[in-house]
Design goal:
The protein is an alpha/beta fold and about 350 residues long. The protein is built from ten helices and 16 strands. The strands form three sheets. Strands 13-12-11-14-15-16 form a six-stranded parallel sheet, with helices on both faces. The chain has a five-stranded antiparallel sheet with strand order 3-2-1-5-4, sandwiched between helices. Strands 8-7-6-10-9 form a five-stranded antiparallel sheet, with helices on both faces. The radius of gyration is 23 Å and the shape is elongated.
């Protein structure tokens, strides 16, 4: 949603409409899964992607016809058998259903609330009805309140119950019909403590896959926006004694300072804050020494088992750029909910 949200808001605020496309069902090894999105404007501009190839090309073409025919929605089915995929130069097969829905200025409050929820680090839930007859309607659950089309009490209760535990899109069969439910998960804020070579490469790779990047170091010649143009915030610290505000499950702390004592100080703060992910660079020997000293200060073994150290996927990385790929790969795996 994030990659199409700002252009969609701009379009709606001008009083125009756009075609919102999302994969609502996927089977097999399709190029993109449920929740992938694109936005098509009246002049044919495309934002986002639902996987390229015949699915995206066909959907973009049909979206253009919706403007000409003034239609409100289409539900498209694509079956990418091996031959079809090969002819399109793809290695993925599978089947997908794509919902194309006209979004008009009357939907502006719903999408503005999604933007506000992201800024407030809340997790809104988008619900789209998939009726056998009639136009699919959009509803947003945000901060305990439903915005948009009304949901019956049973469906609303089921959505509230299930999305407390679910991070991925799902279809809900209720007494009132079928619904596509999509939790709008924060893509994550990466707190890079240390601004050296590994941090620099990691910031670039993390920003590329939609993490919000914040960098901090006590050296102004390293921690500056010229070196980290993709970072949302770069701080020059007086020292490492008070690095973080209150952190939550969508915060990722990566500790790559220039010294073991700094790493230990930052790690102690991170453990006290309980972010969603903590990783620290260093050898197993360094890790064991750091852990022992922290345990002497009251940190428990259970707390330390949550730390990823040595950090990153084990793929034989050597250079700062290779190490950054390992680190960001591990961040992506954690964000996807895949256990290590």
């Amino acid at each position: 949603m994030r990659n199409i949200l700002n252009p969609l808001l701009d379009i709606l605020r001008r009083g125009d409409s756009a075609i919102f496309g999302t994969i609502v069902e996927q089977h097999g090894s399709a190029p993109r899964g449920s929740g992938a999105k694109m936005l098509v404007t009246a002049d044919g501009t495309l934002y986002g992607t639902i996987g390229g190839g015949p699915v995206e090309g066909g959907s973009q073409h049909r979206a253009a016809t919706m403007f000409k025919e003034d239609s409100d929605f289409l539900l498209l089915s694509y079956n990418l058998d091996n031959e079809t995929a090969a002819n399109a130069g793809m290695v993925c097969g599978g089947a997908v259903k794509v919902l194309l829905r006209r979004i008009t200025p009357e939907h502006l409050p719903l999408f503005e609330e999604i933007k506000s929820a992201y800024a407030g680090r809340r997790r809104p839930v988008l619900v789209i009805s998939l009726p056998a007859d009639g136009v699919p309607q959009l509803t947003l659950l945000s901060n305990g309140t439903f915005i948009g089309a009304e949901l019956d009490e049973d469906t609303a209760g089921e959505v509230l119950h299930k999305t407390q535990k679910c991070r991925t899109p799902y279809t809900l069969g209720a007494t009132s019909g079928l619904f596509y439910v999509e939790p709008q998960i924060d893509t994550g804020t990466l707190w890079l403590v240390g601004a050296g070579h590994v941090s620099l490469a990691t910031a670039k790779a993390a920003a590329f896959v939609d993490f919000t990047v914040r960098v901090m170091d006590d050296r102004a010649e390293f921690a500056n926006s010229s070196r980290f143009p993709k970072a949302e915030d770069v701080q020059v610290l007086k020292d490492f004694s008070n690095c973080f505000p209150t952190l939550g499950p969508d915060d990722y702390v990566v500790i790559v300072t220039r010294g073991h004592s700094h790493d230990r100080e930052v790690l102690e703060q991170a453990l006290a804050n309980s972010p969603g992910y903590i990783g620290m660079i260093g050898s197993r020997k360094k890790r064991d020494t750091t852990y022992r000293l922290l345990q002497e200060k009251g940190v428990t073994e259970k707390q330390l088992t949550a730390v990823h150290c040595p950090i990153g996927l084990s793929i034989g990385a050597d250079t700062p750029e290779e190490i950054a790929i390992c680190i960001v790969g591990e961040l992506i795996r954690h964000r996807a909910g895949i256990e290590r």
